Amino acid sequence: TDPHHLGASRTMRRWIDSIFIFTLQILAISQISPNDDFTFRTLSGGKIRGRQVVTEQNVTGYQFLGIPYAKPPVANLRYRKPIPIKKWENVIDATEYKQSCLWNSSETSNDPNRTPMSEDCLFVNVLTNRNCLTEGGCAVMFYIHGGGYRYDTPSLFSPQFLVDNFLTEERSVVFVMPAYRLGSFGFLNLSPTFNTSAIKNIAFHDLLEALRWVQKEIKHFGGDASCVTIAGHSSGGNTVNLLTMSPMAKNLFSKAIAMSAGGTTPLPFDKNQEASVQLARAAHCANVSTNFDDRQEVEAVLRCLRATDAQQLILLQRGLEDEGYPFEGPCIDGPGGVLPEGIPKLRQKRYPIRLLIGSTTEEFSDTEFLVQPNGKADRRRLLSVCRKAVAEMAFKNTWLTTADCFVEYLDPSRAPHVFDDTSIFLSTALSGEDVQNAGGVSFLYEFQYRFVDGAFNFSRLSPPANRPQHTEDLVYIMGIHKGKFTAKDEIIRRMYSEIFVSFVKTGHPSIKGEPSWTPFTPTRNNYFVVDFDENNHMPGMRNGYHERALRLWNGTALRHSGGTLDPMSEKETLHFDMKDNGALTNFAAWTDLQSLNQLRGFPVGDVETLQNVLTDSPMDGSTDAVLTASSTFDGGKWNFYFWIAIIIIVILVTLLLVTCALLCYNREKRREYERII
Question: Nearest CA to 357 among 205, 503, 542, 547?
């Protein structure tokens, strides 16, 4: 055989084999339609392209990030309801996070410059897996990020971490996280008493539109629109609580998870009005003579604000926040709104859903400054803190309830938790009770594991005795502020996240091999203790969730309150600066306090007494002195009782004198009779 011919034959055969293999590959690829390629999705508006993600734990998921759910709220659409996105022509790149909503706050350690920002920010982010995409019908978790309604963004959360927690083949929960407008862009409120072109509670309308998007589109990611759980932490949990009582959220979800959340404290109808007015003035869109009760003048201010550069507004907002004028979340927005009535009334209209709600043991501990180096509570600052807490609870009888508060938190072990008790622990128990009363089912828990340590990469870690604090548990669920995980941390992550996954999928929290959960009962205040011993087992159910806080605020103080102000006004609360260790701020002088005395419920004549107690006058160290002072402060009512008592005493003395006179008269008569005999 000719060797040249043999070599040519082999070369030809290799070419034929290569062509054959290439042809097979082409045929194989041709069998995959765009809908079968898991990184491409066709939505009602058009096509999107995501990407596959493989985690360090070898879990495969698919991320679709930055999907628009509404038109960019820019220019004339600023401060208006979100408008659903229309169809688009090109394939949207959904492989990475898009720009965040504008924020800039001194209240967080997160750097606002770590991510691009824009007003064009109304996106949803979806994580799913092959099982959900092929089989469909997966439960959906709709997570609302926290940040005090002023900061943070979905891009802070690692898709890989979330895929590990929610999208193993066994778990298969479709995870959705929306962006929504923050600060002044989400909560402008120039005209509390009437409607304008600037809708109130804008951020809530964003979230409601995102939930409607889920109902329409989640099937394309393998999700079940009838099995949606809204979830959130901190202000996100507060939002969850409020959505469970909002008439506009009906039929958009079936379950809810609220972590370290408020939501039962009364809200003012004019929330953020002062901050909004100050922003308009700082932007030169208003001045001191602007009449914010005039619709035409308000609309002129809005036209000016809409024409102002967004970056300029966010810088002005940051400056106002540092001066004590923060934008602090939702308001009561009246008929047809997200929150049309006062919170006490809305609480009676909760949906009969399934609710999982809980907290950490120590939460913020943001009044720990009350404990002095000598281990005792600072009485002057404590009284100031109690005034603020009582005002936020909207109690009518402010001074009896302030005295109740003062006595409770004189205990230095209780002093750090004044606002934790009113805003988180009380809300947690009341929310559980509300849902039970509505015909739903609620489960309470408390995360008590004190040794998160390096797993939580945050600079202000406290000693184990003062932990776990706010957000420390979230590192195991969402990965935020994630530090270095030990082997035990990985076990805790798997077990703790299983609680939430099981609830999202079944409506009942559970962990394999651990004690079972029982629904919340208000008479027992039962809750599940999340803690981990040396063998990584949990204690299980306990009774008496934050018993002292509930006994005070839902018992003693409530009985003494004389009811609540509903609806309440922002003017009826004292502005309070935590950075100044509990100083009352935003009052130029005590004359301001005098001018508001009728709203606050204490008499003009006692303002000087109040000033002495809160400022320079030393206190004698006795609780009785404060209780006596608090009785004096409630002047109008006590004056009435005083004069009633005086009248009664005069009547009794008169009766006594008349009786004595009659006795003496009868005695003299008897003596005369005896002499005659």
Answer: 503
Q: Is residue 234 among the annotated active site residues?
A: yes
Q: Which of 302, 138, 118 is nearest to 219 (CA)?
A: 138
Q: Residue by residue, what is the 3-state secondary structure of 269-313?
A: CCCCHHHHHHHHHHCCCCCCCCCCCCHHHHHHHHHHHHHCCHHHH
Q: How far apart are CA 256 and CA 244, in angstroms?
A: 8
Structure tokens given for 72: 């960019």
Q: Under a CB-based contact definition with an 8 Å cutoff, are residues 360 and 260 in contact?
A: yes
d(CA 68, CA 83): 11
Is the peptide bond between 468 and the residue preceding it cis, with omega within 30 degrees of 0? yes
The whole-number average pLDDT for the span 48-69 is 98
From 105, 191, 234, 423, active-site residue: 234
Q: Where do the H-state alpha helices sit in 218-289?
A: 235-243, 273-282
Whole-angstrom CA distances from 79 to 182, 203, 620, 674 are 11, 9, 53, 100
Please report the domains of the chain, with CATH numbers, ordered by start residue. 49-271+310-315 (3.40.50.1820)
Q: 255, 559 in Cβ contact below 8 A?
A: no
How is 24-43 classified by DSSP, letter by letter? HHHHHHHT--TTTSTTEEE-
> What is the identity of the amino acid at 37?
D
Q: How far apart are the first and last CA of the chain?
A: 176
Token code pair at residue 490: 């990985």
Q: Is 45:88 a contact under the CB 8 Å cutoff?
A: yes
How far is Cα 396 from Cα 562, in angstroms, rounded to an integer?
Answer: 6
Which residues make beta-bridge pairs with 117? 100
pLDDT at 236 over 90: yes
Rounded-to-5 percentages of helix, strand, coil across the chain:
45, 15, 40
pLDDT in tens, 118-176: 999 999 999 999 999 999 999 999 999 999 999 999 999 999 999 999 999 999 999 99
Q: Tell me, what's the pLDDT at 565?
A: 78
- Rounded CA separation 382/634 (Å): 19
Does residue 17 have a pLDDT over 70? no
Residue with tokens 């035990």: 488
